[in-house]
Amino acid sequence: MNAARSRSDASPLAFLPRDVATGMLISTVHRHSQKVLNDALRPLGIEERHFATMAVLDSRGPLTQRQLIDLLDLDKSSLGRIVDELERQDLAERRPVPGDRRAHAIHLSAQGRQRVGEAQQIAAGVGQQLFGHLPPEARQALDNALRQLLPRHGADGAPG
């Protein structure tokens, strides 16, 4: 490798067009950070997908499966599997929604609230491990740039 090249220039994706390389870099960072988080959460018996679902329920309260699908950008079968797994561990439960025989709201159990608190502490440590070396202004710029890439959502939080 040429000594004049910086670490950022040393990307194995440098041969790709910039727009392609950027997307692949984001994907690579996502896979790496998800693996590190999943490894850290493993002692709690959950993965990132469970944690994300539980964190939304912890902050927003019980939500219908449709609301969770929209907020987490998941398909119905993926969310169903996640909720099934949370129910098997007694971390959450489906309850009928009064007045709508077809709808079920997902509620965190007391054990689920405790587990999400533990997971939040672990996730904060992982975030520090992965991103703590960035200067605050670079971290803010990264967060802002990533938010701009998210699909636009309406006032109700649903994709729009």
Automatic annotation (TrEMBL):
Database matches in InterPro entries: HTH_MarR-typ, MarR/SlyA-like, WH-like_DNA-bd_sf, WH_DNA-bd_sf
GO molecular function: DNA binding; DNA-binding transcription factor activity
Keyword DNA-binding tagged: yes
Signal peptide: none
Matches recorded under PROSITE patterns: HTH_MARR_2
Keyword field: DNA-binding
Domain HTH marR-type span(s) in chain numbering: 22-151
Gene Ontology BP term (one): response to stress
DNA-binding listed as a keyword: yes
SMART domains: HTH_MARR
PANTHER family assigned: MARR FAMILY REGULATORY PROTEIN, TRANSCRIPTIONAL REGULATOR, MARR FAMILY
The protein's name in its UniProt record: DNA-binding MarR family transcriptional regulator
